[in-house]
Design a protein that fits this description.
about 260 residues, alpha/beta, 4-stranded antiparallel beta sheet, globular
Length: about 260
């Protein structure tokens, strides 16, 4: 086990005006008592409708949001209490977001985008940065002529591959994918997923694959955690109708079957 979430809860303050009373501040739980494990070399899918708390959970793992309660452990280190420095945390856990266009600096070339994390995390490799960039491009199915291009000169699928290459550049243990292939057409999506599976095997990576796309999750992930209204209601090893316990999961299965 490389990542463990123990009873993770995230609540946000909500101001309400009640009749006859002044404003009061309540809290609304976006994530409720979530316990989850990610094994080394595993791809764990996290599915659920919009607003179910999937992205909030990812932000908590990346320490972009503080926990209200609970614990998050990376190997034998608690990362929820800030003892591990950000540079060490992001060396081990990387994020590939949904919107590749806003994730890439429009005034930086692809070479600059890829060299930046290499030089930041591995300053001793600065002289070899160009060769590493070329190797990264090849690993994600891009050609060397992309190096001197700007993000605006690439297609959506190419930009998403650059985001994946940038995540791979720091040699992480875990990559979080937050709806990362949702905006791609079916053919490009299939090609990107095949590339990710190869990278996972070659580099022994662990993936947390957050999505609402049940078909890609079923094909790509080793296990599937179903999130509903901030809670993990079911964790599946097989997408078998006879094994489904929760009503929401059965609804998802019926949607996929249709």
């Amino acid at each position: 086990m490389i990542l463990e979430l123990k009873q993770v809860t995230k609540a946000y303050p909500v101001r309400k005006r009640r009749k006859g009373w002044s404003k009061t501040q309540d809290t609304e739980q976006a994530v409720k008592q979530v316990s989850l494990e990610l094994q080394r070399g595993e791809c764990l899918g996290l599915v659920g409708e919009s607003g179910s708390g999937k992205s909030t959970l990812a932000k908590c793992i990346l320490r972009l949001e503080p926990l209200t309660s609970g614990e998050i452990w990376l190997d034998d280190q608690p990362i929820h209490i800030g003892r591990i420095k950000d540079i060490h945390l992001y060396k081990r856990i990387q994020l590939v977001a949904q919107d590749s266009s806003s994730s890439l600096h429009p005034r930086m070339t692809i070479r600059d985008i890829l060299e930046e994390p290499i030089c930041n995390y591995f300053p001793e490799r600065k002289a070899q940065a160009l060769n590493i960039c070329l190797s990264l491009l090849v690993s994600v199915g891009l050609t060397a002529d992309c190096l001197e291009k700007y993000p605006s000169q690439l297609s959506g699928g190419q930009k998403q591959r650059v985001c994946i290459a940038r995540a791979l550049a720091v040699e992480p243990d875990i990559i979080l994918f937050d709806e990362s292939v949702a905006n791609l057409d079916t053919t490009t999506q299939s090609s990107v997923l095949d590339m990710l599976k190869r990278a996972q095997v070659e580099r022994q990576l662990s993936y947390l694959f957050i999505t609402h796309d049940l078909q890609s999750t079923r094909q790509f992930c080793d296990r599937i955690a179903v999130m509903y209204q901030g809670e993990i209601v079911e964790v599946l090893k097989e997408w078998d109708e006879d094994l489904l316990q929760h009503e929401y999961t059965r609804t998802l299965f019926q949607t996929l079957a249709e």
